[in-house]
Amino acid sequence: MIQFLNLLFRNRLAGLGAGMLVLILLIALITPVLPLPDPNITATADRFMSPFSEGHLLGTDHLGRDLLSRLLSGTRLSLAVGVAAALIATVIGSSIGIVAGFLGGRTDNIIMRLVDMLMAFPYILLALAIVAALGPGLNNALIAVAAVNVPFFARNIRGVTVGLANKEFVDAARLNGMSNGQIIFSEILPNVLPVIVIAMSTTIGWMILETAGLSFLGLGSQPPQADLGSMLGEARAALITFPHTSVVPGIMIFLIVMSINLLGDGVRDAIDPRLKSGALSRPLPATIVERKEVPPTPDKDLLSLQELRTEFHVGERVYKAVGGVSLKVNKGECLGIIGESGSGKSVTALSVMGLVASPPGKIVGGTVSFQGKDLVGASYNELRSLRGDRVAYIFQDPLSTLHPLYTVGDQLIEAMQAHRSVPQKDAQARAVELLEAVRIPNAAQRVKNYPHEMSGGMRQRVSIAMALANEPDVIIADEPTTALDVTVQAQILSLLNDLRRERDLAIVFITHDFGVVAQLCDRVAVMYAGQIVEEGPTAAILDDPQHPYTKRLMACVPELGGGKRELHAIAGLPPAVDQLPQGCAFAARCEFAQEVCRQGGIMLEPKGERAVRCLFPVNADQIEVTL
Amino acid sequence: MAAYILKRLISAIPVLFGITLIVFLIMAMIPGDPATAILGAYATPENVAKINRDLGLDAPLFQRYFIWLGNLFTGDLGRSYSLNRPVLHEIIERFHATLVLAGSSFVLCAVFGILAGVVSAARQYGWADKAITFTVLIGISIPSFFLGMVMILVFAVRLRWFPVSGMYAIYGGGDILDLLRHLIMPALALAAVATGVVARMSRSAMLEVLRQDYIRTARAKGVKERKVILGHALSSAMVNIIPVLGIQAGFVLSGAVYIEMVFQWPGIGRMLVDAILKRDILLVQGGVVFVAACYVLFNIVVDVVQSLLDPRIKS
Ligand code: SF4
C-alpha cells in the first residue's frame, strides 16, 4: 500500500490532480458555513453584474443571484450526484458481476447476454431513454446515469470473479461447508474489492460529467435548484452578451473532471506493473552509444568485436550484460557463442548492428568493426544500410519475429527492396527462389501464406530465406533452432551448413547447446556473466575443455544435437549482472575455486589458438581425477 | 469474406431484438395509462380511443411489444403528436443532419487521434509527445458542451470566422460551402474528447507493438524507420485501435446530443431532447431504437474492416 502511494505520488501530475480534487472537495464541504449570500435569492436590479463587483466576487447571473455562492452550491450538488450515481452503479453492477461470475452456467449466460445488449447502445442514448420514461429531474438523471454504467461494472467484475471462482481457496471453503453467500462475502469480495475501487475511480469523472450533461440539456436538476450542468444550461441564453455566467460553471466542471482524470491516470500507472520496470519505453531505431574511449579498429577481419561493453540502465540499476567481449569471424567461418540464458550471448549478437532495445540498453565501450569500419560509432543511416544487406539476422522464435499481418512473400520482398530498387515482378520471382533455396516445398504457393499458416520449421526457413535475401557476408543466428523439435532442428542445421559452404558465408551461431556447436561451428566462444571464459577451435575445446564452466556445460549434453534442453544440470545460478562479484564470476559454482579466485579480475589468457579465463584451468589429467 | 459478413449480420439479429425489447421495457416504466402518456397534452378521448386501437395499448404488455415490433417491421413507428407527422419521417430527416455532424467528427477523431498517437509514440518523451499528451489531457477533460460554447465565444463572436449556430445560413445559404462553414465548429467540439481517447489508445498500442520481436526483425532487415513506424508498427497497432474507434463512434453519435443543443444543429439528438421535454413518447422510442440499430450495424462494419486487416481472424 505504502509502495503504491509512493508510486502514485512520484507521478507529479497525479499528485497535482489529487491536490486539486482535495481542494475542491474541501471547499464543497465547508460551503454551508462560508459567509455567502443565499444562492437562490434573486435581485432583478443586480442582473448580470460582472466579476469582481462589490459584494459579488464572480458577479451575478440573469436573475441577479450571486454566482460564487451558486457555483459552490452547484459544485456540491454535482459532486454529490456524481458520487451517488457512481456508488449505485458500482454496488449494483459489481453484485451482478460477482453473482454471474461465481454461479457461472445458465445464470451467467443470461446475465451476460443482457449486459451485452445494454452495451450495444450508444451510452448517452440509453440514459436519455430512461429519463424520457421517468421524466426530467435530478433524481431521475442520477438513476439514468447509474443505470447505464451498471453493465460496465458487471462485465469487468464478472471477469475477475470467474478467475477467482475456480481457485483452490474457494474449493476449500466449499468443502468446509460454507454456503455460496458466505463464500462470496468472505472469499470473493475481499479479492475483487481493489478492482471494484479502481473501476469506480476511473468512471466517477464520467458520471459527474454525464449528470452535469443531462442537467445541461434541461433533463436533470430543475430550477431553482442548480448543479453545474444546469447553471451552464441556463447561462447559455446569455452566452454572447454575458459570457462570464457560462464560463464560471464551465471551468469548474473542467477542473473537477481534469483532477479526477489526472488522479485516475496516476492510479492506473501505479497499478500497471509494466510501467514500473520502464518496459513501456519504445526501443529506438538504433542502440544508444555512450563510449568513453574508442579502441583502434583492426582492419583485416570481416567482422570483429573488440572489448565490447553493453549495459542496461534500469532506474538506479546497471546490468552489465556484455562486459568486454572480443570476437572475430571471417569468410566461410562459423563461430559459435555458447552460454546459459542471461550469459550475454544474445545481447552481444544484437549489439553488432545496434539492435539492443534502447532504452534501457546502451553500448558503453569497445568497437564492432565490419570490414574495417567501426559500426558502434556509425550513424543510423550507415547502420541501416548494412543491416540485412551485409549482416543479416535470424532470430529464435519465428512466430513472434515474423510480422503477423504480412504474407511471407511480402516480408521477403521488403527485405530486398529495403536496400535496392527491385521491380515488384522480379522481387516476387526472387522471393519464390529464396523459399526454394531453403527447401520449402511448393514455394510458389507458400509465398502467399501468412506466418500463422505455417509450421514452426517452415517459418524458420522463411527467416533464413529472409536473411539470405541480399546475399549478406555475415549471418548472425540467435538460437534459431531452440523452438523447434529435434528432426526439424537437424534439417535447419544442415541447411545452414550447406548455405555456408555454397556462399562462403560467415555465421555467428548463438546457442546453449554444445551438440549444435559440434555439428556446425569451426570455433566456439563460451560466455559466462557477460564475458568470454574460454575460446578456441571447436574440436580442441570439445576434446579438452579447460575452463571448469565449459567442462560442466559439456557434461550437460547427453547426446550431440539432442534438441530442446535447458542447461539445468549445473548447480546454482549465474550471478546477476547488476551485482557481479569482484573476482571470477563463476567462483560461487566452481568446484576448484580457491581464495585467490575471488580477489581480482581474471584475464583471458591466450594459449596458442585458444584462450581461457581461469586461474586453475582443468586439464585432461584433472578430469580423470575428479571423475 | 462474404461468409464472415453474413455470420456477423446473423449474430446481430438477437442484439437488434434485444435493443427493441430494452427500449420497449424502459418506455413501459412510464407510470399511468400508456395512451394518456403518449398523447400528453393531446389526450382527448377520441385520440385515446384511436391510439388504443392503433397500437393495441389496452392489450397486455407482452402482446403490446409484439404489436409494436410488427409495426416496426413495416416501418411504422407511429405518429408524433407534438409534430403531427409520422415518427419515421421526422427521424430520417433529423438523422441525416446528425450523420453529417457525427460522421465528420468521427473522421476527425480517427485521423487526428491516430496521427497524434503515432507521433507521440515515435517521439516518446520528446517535446512533441509532451505537447500531445498535455493537449489530450485537456481535450478529454473539457465537457464538449462547454468547449462548444467557448468556441462560439472565440471563433464566432470575437473573431467572426464562423457562424454562431445552425446548419445552413437562413438567407442565401444551402450549398456545400455554407454547410462546411457551419459544420467546422460543432464537428471539432464533438470530436475533441474522442480524439483524445483515440490518441491515448493509439499511443499505448504503438508503444506495445514497437517492443515486439517483429519490429526488431524489420529493423534488422534494414527497413527504413519511417516504414517501420508507419507500416509494420501501425498496421499491427490498428488491430487494437479499430475496436477503440468502434466504441468512440458510439460516443460521438450520442455526444452529438449536447453539441446539437449548443449549436442549434437540427439533428436527432436535439429532436430527442425536445421530444422528452414535450413527453412525445413515440418519437423518443422510435429515435432511440433507430440510432441504436444504426450503431449496431456500424459495429459490424468495424468488425469487417478488422477482419480485412488481420488475416488471423477469419481462420
Ligand atoms: S578462476 Fe577459480 S573460480 Fe574461476 S573458474 Fe577458475 S578455478 Fe573456478
UniProtKB/TrEMBL annotation, chain A:
Keyword annotations = ATP-binding, Cell membrane, Membrane, Nucleotide-binding, Transmembrane, Transmembrane helix, Transport
Residue ranges constituting the ABC transmembrane type-1 domain according to the UniProt record: 75-264
Supply the Pfam families for this chain.
ABC_tran, BPD_transp_1, oligo_HPY
- What subcellular locations does the record give? Cell inner membrane; Cell membrane
Q: Which InterPro entries does this UniProt record tie to the protein?
A: AAA+_ATPase, ABC_Ni/Peptide_Import, ABC_transporter-like_ATP-bd, ABC_transporter-like_CS, MetI-like, MetI-like_sf, Oligopep_ABC_C, P-loop_NTPase
Q: State which residue ranges cross the membrane.
A: 12-34, 77-103, 115-135, 188-209, 246-264
ABC transporter domain residues: 303-554
Q: How does it sit in the membrane?
A: Peripheral membrane protein; Multi-pass membrane protein
Q: Answer yes or no on keyword ATP-binding.
A: yes
Source superkingdom: Bacteria
For this chain, the family text in UniProt reads: Belongs to the ABC transporter superfamily.
PANTHER family documented for this protein: DIPEPTIDE TRANSPORT ATP-BINDING PROTEIN DPPD, OLIGOPEPTIDE TRANSPORT ATP-BINDING PROTEIN APPD
Protein name (database record): Dipeptide/oligopeptide/nickel ABC transporter permease/ATP-binding protein
- In its UniProt entry, the species of origin is given as Kiloniella laminariae
UniProtKB/TrEMBL annotation, chain B:
- TM spans (from-to): 12-30, 95-119, 131-159, 179-199, 228-261, 281-305
The protein's UniProt keywords, in alphabetical order, are: Cell membrane, Membrane, Transmembrane, Transmembrane helix, Transport
**CDD domains listed in its UniProt record:** TM_PBP2 (cd06261)
What name is this protein filed under? ABC transporter permease
Q: Which residues form the ABC transmembrane type-1 domain?
A: 95-306
User: Where in or outside the cell is it found?
Assistant: Cell membrane
Q: Which domain of life is it from?
A: Bacteria
Query: Topology versus the membrane, per the UniProt entry?
Result: Multi-pass membrane protein
Q: Which organism is it from?
A: Kiloniella laminariae
Chief subcellular location: membrane
* Record-stated family: Belongs to the binding-protein-dependent transport system permease family.
UniProt-listed Pfam families: BPD_transp_1, BPD_transp_1_N
Sections of the chain in a coiled coil: none
Tell me if Transmembrane is a UniProt keyword of this record.
Answer: yes
Q: Which residues form the signal peptide?
A: none
